[in-house]
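Hey, sorry to bother you again with one of my protein questions. A protein chain has come my way and I'm curious about its shape. I'm sending you its amino acid sequence along with the backbone structure tokens. I owe you a coffee for this, so here goes:
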Amino acid sequence: MHSEVVGSRSAEKRDSSRESRNGTPQLDAVSLAIIEQLQEDGRRPYAAIGKAVGLSEAAVRQRVQKLLDQGVMQIVAVTDPLTVGFRRQAMVGINVEGDVESIADALSAMSEVEYVVMAAGSFDILAEIVCEDDDHLLDVINKRIRALPGVRSTESFVYLKLKKQTYMWGTR
């Protein structure tokens, strides 16, 4: 019995699922290393990751699934929007009267909005929009974003050329 308790305690120490005081998962060094391996190559086999971080393939598979379930990371295909039919991208700065979170939630529900940040500074919210063309962008901004109750003003920054897009910031 004592060895089971000790075994489960040491397993807890290795487990990446503990939460900090603010409710976010605390990640151990192994989970951080797994994330970095997947940031380098999202298709890297679990066996190769396991070899790099010192775990079995099955243990890596479990850790990755837990990280996905906790919302710590996503594994996605990142495309160049131009090559898949989206010719217009823009960052839209939005000033809000009242509840910023309700506007951020409404923006997050729009399929064209890829990125929403509540910010301090000149804008309350920054939203990245990906559209098929200028008419589509105008429709999203004019008829959907500006129509949200509480949106005071918007300023659009239309992308002329995407020079760099990466998700390789690593972990801390």
In short: Residues 1-17 have pLDDT under 50 and may be disordered. The first strand starts at residue 88 and ends at 96.
